[in-house]
Write a structure and sequence with these properties.
This protein has 299 residues and is of the alpha/beta class. It has 12 helices and 7 strands. It has a 7-stranded mixed β-sheet, sandwiched between helices. About 2% of the residues have low confidence.
Length: 299
């Protein structure tokens, strides 16, 4: 069962520049759509897929070239050594939440359902979205909504949540939506809620820290000439990836050799201009609309 429509599939495969005998990592296996496409190009090579979500187990392909690791990609170096690999030829990371996770009401990712506010990608984690809403200080809620959701009225939103939880815990999406109803812009309801829920999801899963860790660990295990392909879905992620590919750090500050003045670089950007889905793909898969693909080659 493949429950996740792979975004920018052809562009991803082309971007990896696959060596049939190479070793590749899919750090966000999910529904396995990208992995299946990569496997079609392998002969003697191997693909290692990582996913901490137990639901991903149902999508593991029966293929001798594929290894599945039901853990977070932060352990990628340990597992590479375990399977006898030192360096890899290519790395893929699709940072989107799978369609399955959005469509399963009990996962609590979407404001479309009256469901408990969970949002954990790894259900073995302790912190969920309801915990954030009911235990974080007002100042921390403001920070999350401002930095991760880019909400202009982050302060008012946080204040309404703190006021509402004084009389009743915020447990479900309906509880949350009702608590902040008066501050939701009437002409931008869906956009506002999408950003709010995005902010909570990023906090619950530590997504931006995980992304930075993934980029650094990926750089360390990637061969010279190997490719890293990353799909992001909002400006916060894209900025981190863009800066890292450009400068090797997350601030985008290009460092120069103090003696010779040469720019220190880890990557060659394959596409200076970000790759986005075609109108045809968006029509088939509307959730691909915000996707941005960046490709870099290790120097």
């Amino acid at each position: 069962m493949e429950y996740h429509v792979p975004v920018l599939l052809n562009e991803v495969v082309d971007g990896l520049n696959i060596n049939p005998d190479g070793v590749y990592l899919d750090l966000t296996f999910g529904g396995g759509g990208h992995s299946r496409a990569i496997l079609k190009h392998l002969k003697g090579g191997r693909l290692i897929g990582f996913d901490q979500d137990e639901d991903a187990l149902r999508n593991v392909p029966d293929d001798e070239h594929f290894i599945f690791v039901n853990h977070n990609f932060k352990y990628l170096r340990n597992f590479l050594r375990y399977y006898g690999f030192d360096k890899v030829d290519g790395i893929l990371a699709d940072l989107g939440v799978s369609s399955h996770e959005f469509d399963e009401a009990d996962r609590g990712f979407s404001f479309r359902f009256d469901s408990e506010l969970d949002m954990r990608m790894n259900r073995r984690s302790k912190l969920n979205a309801a915990d954030v809403l009911n235990t974080y200080s007002e100042a921390d809620l403001v920070r999350i909504f401002r930095d991760y959701g880019e909400l202009e009225n982050a302060g008012r939103t946080a204040a309404m949540i703190v006021k509402a939880r004084e009389s009743q815990k915020i447990v479900t999406s309906t509880d949350l939506n009702d608590a902040i109803a008066v501050v939701i812009p009437k002409i931008k309801v869906n956009k506002y809620l999408a950003r709010l829920y995005q902010a909570l999801r990023i906090e619950v899963n530590g997504e931006l820290d995980a992304l930075q860790e993934m980029l650094e660990r990926g750089r360390d295990v990637l061969k010279s000439g190997g490719r890293m392909v990353v799909i992001t879905y909002h400006s916060l992620e894209d900025r981190i990836v863009k800066n890292f590919f450009k400068s090797g750090n997350f601030e985008g500050k290009v460092e120069k050799d103090p003696i010779f003045g040469d720019v220190r670089r880890d990557f060659l950007e394959i596409n200076r201009k970000v790759i986005t889905p075609s109108e045809e793909e968006i029509n088939v898969n509307p959730r691909s609309r915000s996707a941005k693909l960046r490709i870099a080659e290790k120097i």
